[in-house]
Amino acid sequence: MRKIEIILIAAILVIGLAVRLYKIDRPVADWHSWRQADTAAVARNFIKEGYNPFIPRYDDMSSQANGLDNPNRYRFVEFPVYNSIIAAVWSITGINDAMARLVTVFITLGSTGLLYLVVRNFSDWQTATISAFFFAIIPYNVFYSSAILPGPLMVFFLLALYLSFVNWLKEQKLIFALFSVLFANLAILTWPIAIFFSLPLFYLAVDRFGKDILKKPSLFIIAFLSIVPFIAWRVWMSQFPEGIPNWQFLLNEGNIRFRGAFFRWLIVERLGGLILSVTGFAVFALGVLIKPKSKEKLFYHFWLGSLLLYFIVFASGNVRHDYYQVPAIPILAVFLAKGAGFLFKLPSEYFLQVVGKITAILLIIFTLAFGFFEVRGFYWVNNPAIIEAGKAVDKLIPKDATVIASYQGDAAFLYQTNRHGYPVVDRPLEQFIKEGTEYFASIDVDDEGIKSLSAHCDVVEKTEKYVILKLFTECIGK
């Protein structure tokens, strides 16, 4: 690696770190707070209750995840690799939202370097550098790489897998095969949709071995060992059905796949709006159209194809949740780099090169400006009252008490209370009391039902923003 490459990558990493420090200390009450709270709660309970990654627990005892009561608070989704890392950091620093966000930040900075190395294997150093640059500063990626979500860690492991597998194909050394298996396992366990992104690896293997691929048992051993732990995890978690959220709706809820709304949401709203903006999408499209160089062959296009396959299979998930597009950022950054590189090097016999350079710079500036405009609201604390009410609950009610912190099913309010309980009223209040939950916290102080409860039940604390009540059977329904 030349000196100029080292300097540029170092500069990109510094810039990437600097922009991610924006509101790094915001509480878990920003965009997608419900998912962040669930993720952070698992890590926090590892600290409070002892570390057992095979039985992860969060704070929600309700039935809203799948219709089954969950008094043990089981949380069986992805294997808690990411949560374990946060818990390890918190065991040193203490439980702190900013430190959890910094975990994601440094994971993403690592991914920036890995993306550079992966692209450098197939393209020139300029394309690799520009790819890393886009990955580091796309505003959508800046926000989600300071969120408490497992997606960025999956991206890190996936890029590490690509790099390891490429090196194994080159040198056929056992160490690279072992690293490939390790990172494949970690990627899939961290977020199972990583399985979709094995398509580029299959392409590389076929391109390397051709018809002799069937004579390479090592390939099949790598593939087998890469999926066995995930299968074992799925078998294990099936013993805890109350802790497995419904997920089938993420596939094709409302038969949205291939309908107009499907294309509109993914192309216009997400890729052409939130993530790349209209200017960045134009540069990306140009990059896709450029003929691959000799070393690249179709690797990038198979990578893009795996992304499209993921979009199609998890159609409603990608329409419903914008954080589902986090795995798209690396390959989008690569094609952005190819498109921008072409504009910077337009052939002089057909184009005015100076105009091409100016156009490229303006498009990049607009992409970043429009992107920040789209995501700036993601950082906002949507309802500061849940922070104040949560602190009051943590101060005023017993540490071992469970609490109803109703917030339309969003566990962010419950998370702020530092208690287990219910983020939704999913049963009669009398049943809550019978099951041992006597405390009720609400920020809907003007609601008639809350006013009635406040008038007849024991008021622990009441302000203009929230009320904390202790319930008893006789005060219900009056």
TrEMBL record:
Domain of life according to the entry: Bacteria
Glycosyltransferase RgtA/B/C/D-like domain span: 80-236
rRNA processing in keyword set: no
Keyword NADP on entry: no
TM region positions: 102-119, 151-169, 175-206, 218-236, 271-291, 298-317, 323-344, 351-373
Subcellular location: Cell membrane
Membrane topology: Multi-pass membrane protein
One GO MF term: pentosyltransferase activity
Organism: Candidatus Curtissbacteria bacterium RIFCSPHIGHO2_02_FULL_40_16b
Protein name as catalogued: Glycosyltransferase RgtA/B/C/D-like domain-containing protein
GO biological process, one term: lipopolysaccharide biosynthetic process
GO cellular component, one term: plasma membrane
Principal location class: membrane
Keyword terms: Cell membrane, Glycosyltransferase, Membrane, Transferase, Transmembrane, Transmembrane helix
